[in-house]
Design goal:
Shape of chain A: elongated
Structural class of chain A: mainly alpha
Helix content of chain B: 25-40%
Structural class of chain B: alpha/beta
Number of helices of chain A: 11
Shape of chain B: elongated
Distance between the termini of chain A: 26 Å
Order of helices and strands of chain B: EEEHEEHEHHHEHEHEEHEHEEHEH
Strand content of chain B: 25-35%
Oligomer: heterodimer
Strand order of the largest sheet of chain B: 6-7-8-3-9-10
Number of strands of chain B: 14
Number of strands of chain A: 0
Distance between the termini of chain B: 34 Å
Largest interface: A-B, 23 and 29 residues
Radius of gyration of chain A: 19 Å
Chain lengths: 232, 307
């Protein structure tokens, strides 16, 4: 686990020495805050709208994980930096765990910051009493847990794919499909449900958790040194 | 020490390496020569513990790559043709990172020694992206040596290096041999192999076709001889025919002819040839054994193996 953390740390530093990544992170944190601020007019600020935007505040930062996951293996393969890593005495599972943590930790951190920023902004705009009722601590914890599972799922799936494609560009294109799918999903949630109940959040969390298990099992089966080296 | 025992590696239906066996002793440089796609990189990756052999086994420093791949990796240093660095890191952070991956408990003194040895002290805190190609390759070598491995695997390490840097790298490899490391140099640079390797293993089309000491391979086959003779060609051919020596070539050089022949029994055949030439009235300026370059030997061996 020590080596997985070492790998994760390097991944995070690598991601955030890129100005584009910092800009994307800021954008995804600012977006829900901006949207709720623009939608504060009467009739556009129903409880449902506030909750849907809260869901977006939790999930949109996960988009940063998609790009990071796409680059995790594909970029290393392209730069040929994977060979020295594979030649080091690290277990396959530590490499996968390190790369997943490198994707998960910053995206989860952004999700938390986004949720807090959204909660504070919403309280300022709509009043603390209303927001305390709509976004109770348990709901916020649920939304954060949902975003963590979502990041883990998206990260694991994209990583499985990016370990098997030849270039970072291909991986990013595939990641783009994931991102598009995510936007469609969020829009569908907003359109399909008039009431975002805690049962819905719980149901989504369970569904994503099941998807996590499937993705991680696939990552474990598909990703190993043999596979990675054979494709270098 | 590296022992490769009857190793085969297949990727699906493609056989990248077939029944390869060779040994690299500690304090020895062995050149693994072969054309592109011959199986050199596959062999080095199996020895490095990155790839599992489909059949056979490789023993590195007493450990099997089949059963102890992780420990094998800890005992190998691998340098590839591409430096493959994390270019946003400084050299210090990069080497510290790999030292920790290799469980080096106190990396700082080791890193200081390495950068001193490789002439990189002045750029220790610079980002790797700013390094020249040669400096990047030196950084890759430092990475491979950071855990003081007893086995060093160099896969085309001098690719794209200028002659001065190649010379520096050569001196470094020779100095590492003096530290009793087993060094496998995978290359198709025959000049490089000839200069520094103690032994040569030639691989072609996934199969090892010849193995031996560098000098031994260069003199393999019947030894060749070159005589500088003043006489007409007909006289020379007649004399050597009567001596039972088969002429391989005669070429004109200003003032004399160069005559080449090869024989399995030089003491007997050369004496007869000289006597016959002198008896025929020819004047012999010199008679020398011809040494093949490693390149000539290599090309002859590859040609022979494909025949």
């Amino acid at each position: 686990m020590k080596k997985a953390l070492l790998l994760a740390r390097r991944e995070i530093v690598e991601q955030y020495t890129d100005r584009g990544a910092i800009f994307r992170a800021f954008f995804f944190v600012a977006l829900p805050v901006g949207i709720i601020t623009l939608n504060r007019g009467a009739g556009r600020s129903s409880d449902v709208v506030i909750l849907i935007f809260a869901l977006q505040a939790a999930l949109l930062p996960a988009a940063t994980a998609i790009n990071a996951a796409a680059g995790s293996f594909a970029a290393e393969k392209e730069a040929q930096t994977l060979v020295p890593l594979l030649a080091a005495p690290i277990r396959d599972i530590d490499i996968v765990a390190g790369k997943l943590l490198g994707v998960l930790l910053p995206a989860a951190g952004l999700s938390l910051v986004s949720l807090v920023a959204y909660r504070v902004t919403a309280a300022v705009i709509f009043g603390e009493e209303r927001i305390a009722r709509l976004l109770a601590a348990l709901t916020l914890v649920g939304l954060f847990a949902l975003s963590v599972f979502f990041i883990l799922t998206v990260g694991a799936w994209v990583m499985v794919v990016s370990a098997r494609v030849g270039s970072q560009r291909t991986a990013q294109q595939i990641a783009g499909f994931f991102l598009a799918g995510m936007i469609v999903l969020l829009s569908a949630i907003g359109g399909a449900f008039q009431n975002v109940s805690s049962e819905l959040v719980l149901g989504l969390t369970i569904a994503i958790f099941v998807s996590d298990l499937a993705a991680l099992e696939l990552a474990r089966r598909f990703w190993n040194r043999e596979e990675a080296v054979a494709r270098l | 020490m590296i022992e490769v025992h009857d190793v085969t590696r297949r990727f699906g239906s493609f056989t990248a390496l077939s029944h390869a066996s060779f040994v690299v002793q500690s304090g020895e440089i062995v050149a693994l020569l072969g054309p592109n796609g011959a199986g050199k990189t596959t062999a080095s990756r199996i020895i490095a513990g990155i790839l599992r052999p489909t059949e056979g086994d490789a023993i590195v420093d007493g450990l099997s790559v089949r059963t102890s791949a992780d420990q094998v990796r800890a005992r190998c240093g691998l340098v590839t043709d591409s430096p493959a660095l994390y270019e946003r890191m400084t050299l210090r952070s990069y080497l510290t990172y790999f030292a920790r991956l290799y469980d080096v408990t106190d990396p700082a003194p080791r890193i200081a020694d390495l950068v001193e040895l490789l002439g990189l002290s002045a750029v220790l805190d610079k980002k790797l992206a700013a390094f020249s190609r040669g400096m990047k390759q030196k950084a890759a070598i430092a990475r491979a040596l950071v855990h003081e491995p007893p086995v060093l695997l160099l896969d085309e390490p001098a690719t794209a290096l200028d002659p001065e840097m190649t010379q520096t790298l050569r001196e470094l490899i020779v100095s590492l041999r003096a530290q009793h490391r087993a060094i496998l140099l995978c290359t198709h640079d025959l000049d490089e192999a000839q200069r520094i390797s103690d032994r040569v293993v030639i691989v072609d089309r996934s199969t090892i076709v010849r193995e031996g000491a560098t000098a031994e391979l260069r003199s393999a086959g019947h030894p060749s001889f070159r005589a500088e003779v003043v006489a007409d060609e007909g006289t020379i051919r007649g004399a050597l025919l009567s001596a039972g020596v088969t002429v391989e070539s005669i070429s004109a050089v200003t003032g004399w002819l160069e005559v080449r022949w090869s024989t399995p029994d030089p003491a007997e055949a050369n004496t007869r040839a000289l006597r016959a030439l002198l008896d025929a009235g020819a004047r012999v300026i010199s008679l020398n054994a011809e040494t093949r370059s490693l390149e000539e030997a290599y090309l002859a061996i590859i040609k022979e193996s494909r025949a």
